[in-house]
Amino acid sequence: MKKSIFILALLFAIPMVRAQEEGIGEILNRNVIDCYDVVNNSYALLPNYYEESKMDTVQMIIDYWKENCHFNERLQRIIILKAIDENNFSEELYDEYIIDFLLQYKGSESVYYPSFGLNPPADFQKFDKFTQDLAYRLSEQNDLGPLEKFFADFYSNHYMNEFKRLYGPEFNGTNLQAYYFEDIRKNKTFGALGYYFAAGMWAPTSSLNTLGIHPRTSFGMGYYSPNTTVMLDFGVAFLNSANYYNVMYKDSLYRTKRFSGLYLGITAEQKIIGSSRSKLNLLGGFGYEGIGTIKIYDEQCDCDGLDDIHYLNTINLNLGVGAQIYLSDYMNLFLRSKYNFLFFNNEGGTDLSGNTITVSIGAMFTGYSYERNRLRALDYNRANSW
Q1: Rounded Cα distance, 269 and 322, in Å
Q2: Does the pLDDT value for residue 385 go beyond 60?
């Protein structure tokens, strides 16, 4: 009881000046603890008492803060640094939320006060400078264990790629490494909107080779992740046929070199192998493919306007491989080659049986992903997933 009275008096010493404005009755009859004042005054008072080596008072403030108000990143930080300084550090001081707190400190995510929705108190800069100096002093010691050294370096702001250290064998079996790996596991299969533009060629085989090779452009968009991509594709092949061919339409045979190829389908990609800068994928898909052959005019009309184009249609089943090179986390260049199984039926006309090989070179762009940004903040090597 005496401890609580002392801490309350200490932490509310500064806000008591509000009595002139609020009235002493309002302050004395508050039914809830004003945690804004508790946290704000803790930020202001802890550095002073710590530097004066009044560690009992420091511990009393920490205990009161922890028991009565929101447990935030700065409270976790001072608990860890104080334990290292007093040679009683253990992993019982934190749980799986330590990764969130470390990311908050690193600045990849905002410091969060979900219980109150408050802005950071005014004295937090003083507190941060104090913990940074304390951590730097601790990091200079030669008798620290791997975990103690990690936290001392991290909180001293010598944290460039610090998370990568957790892959080291010296952290095997630690809770911190386990929490880190679990966080990566949950986020490394992120998904984001992706879209691409590509150019290439449409090359027929067998009897279909009568039509010759054609340039082709394509566009697609859909779901993108490090391991799996599913895109809705639209492709257009153009320029006239290399040779004349015959098409039967309404019992009449037409000789033409007209050609326009259309494709609409779905393609799925699955990573086979990958590195930090590239990956190799297996492709598979299906869709509709059509060849525009002859113009069809309305014979009832005296005008010369185009009414329609006669298409030969088929299902397209395709398999292939693709390679990607990453220029950034949001853009990559790719090369794809697919073998397309086609089933054109040009009854009464030139035999157009055969398949095609399509080759595309293009650029893919991907949108924002919380999971990907978190992986980057965790210094995750994308070679392990991309």
Answers
A1: 8
A2: no
